[in-house]
Write a structure and sequence with these properties.
single chain; 451 residues; mainly alpha; 18 helices; 76% helix; 0% strand; globular; binds tryptophan
Length: 451
């Protein structure tokens, strides 16, 4: 069933798409992945992936979504695609569940940290004290589950209210605010004693650090951060109007998203070196460094509260998009009411997230391939399922979708589809046909070789 909901304004289109892209992936995941994979070398490869693969696959998802006006499963049905291509949809639906399974745990951490900021971090200001604080929080099963479930309750409440009202209004006001406050803190970080070392770590590529895990990690981060490869952007594009320009929307989204990630790096790494934290500290990195930065500022608790509130909202606009894929599928294909879809999916996500929220405490001993449950959900979804989805989307749009449709969707509205396409359109099509599939396949094969 085609949906008739549309975003009301052009700003709404950009804001909702950027709202999906900008989230914990930029501010929490990017710095810690860069920290684990050699800093500058990781950043360089990451940016290359965003440009060469990310932007084209984003545009490809937009094309399918807007052309069909359908949810992920409905889209491939309407296109009468062979069963192989329907797997894009099911990979996407499963990815939504797996990503929400760890993302909502970290989103819950933002709530705990709003609370901690309000109570002055229990007096902790030094790196050691904040380290201990993070440990005691993440190993406590009860508090982990509580904040995870509270976050999910908020998420699914917003979801139940529908597309436009819920998503558009919030992201229009708060995303620009997040941007502004990040900028202020970046400037602050530039005056820290570790600034030179931190910036060198982030911007000076050390090519000896590049190995398959750097490349696979950078590819996964590019997909994750752009929200691409699983049908989120397809679903959003089904709410776009004919006048939305798909290529410029993908480029704008990628530029803003990358800018926020780089700003997060500029904010975090000078502080990492000033406070003597290890860049490779993992998921805990940002949650220990940010409060340590705020502790050095006048009215630090207020800054901390404001920052974690905005981070929470950034996370929320991302989880809304992640949830919407599955909700749109229940409503479109199963003819469920939005309320029923919200409740059923909410319960499924709550069960999985509760389990993964225990990964640092009661379930810390449980490991598969050397990863705890939380890390496993992240690795499988970001580094494997999203690139796999992206590979199939690139192959479908590049080789299967009639070229006339692809060109017409990518070009400005009203343009004669038989006239020669502008360079941007040709570049996107070339990448969808050749660069994306070859690069993604090569990296997968490289990852499978014995190391
Ligand atoms: N991109 C978001 C972030 O960086 C997370 C996200 C939202 C996402 N929707 C997605 C990731 C879809 C992958 C796929 O925080």
């Amino acid at each position: 069933m085609a949906n008739n909901a549309k975003f009301t304004t052009r700003l709404g289109v950009i804001a909702a798409t950027v709202g999906s892209a900008v989230g914990l992936g930029n501010i929490w995941r990017f710095p810690y992945e860069a920290g684990m994979h050699g800093g500058g070398a990781f950043l360089l490869i990451y940016v290359l992936f965003v440009l060469l693969i990310g932007v084209p696959v984003v545009a490809g998802e937009f094309v399918i979504g807007r052309y069909t006006g359908e949810n992920v499963v409905g889209a491939f049905k309407k296109l009468k695609a062979a069963p192989l291509w329907h797997s894009v949809a099911y990979i996407g639906l499963l990815s939504s569940l797996l990503i929400l399974g760890f993302y909502s745990v970290v989103a819950g951490w933002t709530l705990e940290y709003i609370y901690q900021a309000a109570t002055g971090f229990g007096g902790a200001a030094s790196q050691e004290a904040l380290h201990a604080q993070f440990d005691s929080f993440t190993t406590s099963g009860g508090r982990q589950i509580f904040w995870t479930l509270l976050f999910l309750a908020i998420n699914f409440f917003v979801i139940s209210r529908g597309v436009q009202k819920g998503i558009e209004r919030m992201s229009n006001i708060l995303m620009p605010m997040l941007f502004a406050i990040l900028f202020v803190f970046c400037v602050n970080s530039l005056f820290m004693p570790g600034a030179t070392e931190g910036l060198a770590f982030l911007f000076h590529p050390d090519f000896s650090k590049i190995d398959v895990s750097t490349v696979l990690g950078a590819m996964g981060q590019a997909f994750f951060s752009l929200s691409v490869g699983m049908g989120v952007l397809m679903t959003y594009a089904s709410y776009f109007s004919r006048s939305t320009r798909l290529i410029s929307t993908s480029v704008t989204t990628a530029v803003l998203d990358t800018l926020v990630a780089v700003m997060a790096g500029v904010l975090i790494f000078p502080a990492v070196f000033s406070f003597g934290e290890a860049p490779a500290a993992g998921p805990r990195l940002v949650f220990e460094i940010l409060p340590a930065i705020f502790a050095t500022l006048p009215a630090g608790s207020l800054w901390a509260m404001l920052f974690f509130i905005l981070l929470f909202v950034a996370a929320l606009t991302s989880t809304i998009s992640l949830s919407e894929v599955v909700i749109a599928w229940f409503v479109g294909e199963w003819r469920w009411s939005r309320g029923k879809a919200t409740i059923v999916y909410g319960i499924a996500v709550a069960l999985l997230s509760s389990l993964s929220s225990l990964s640092f405490g009661p379930l810390a001993g449980f490991s598969i391939f050397g990863m705890n449950f939380f890390d496993l959900l992240d690795f499988v979804s970001s580094n494997i399922m999203l690139p796999l989805g992206g590979l199939l989307i690139a192959l479908y749009t590049g080789w299967k979708l009639p070229r006339r449709i692809l060109r017409a969707q990518l070009s400005a509205p009203g343009r004669d589809p038989d006239a020669p396409s502008p360079l941007a359109v040709r570049l996107i099509i070339f990448s969808l046909r050749f660069i994306c599939p070859l690069a993604i396949l090569a990296i997968f094969l490289w990852g499978l070789l014995p190391h």
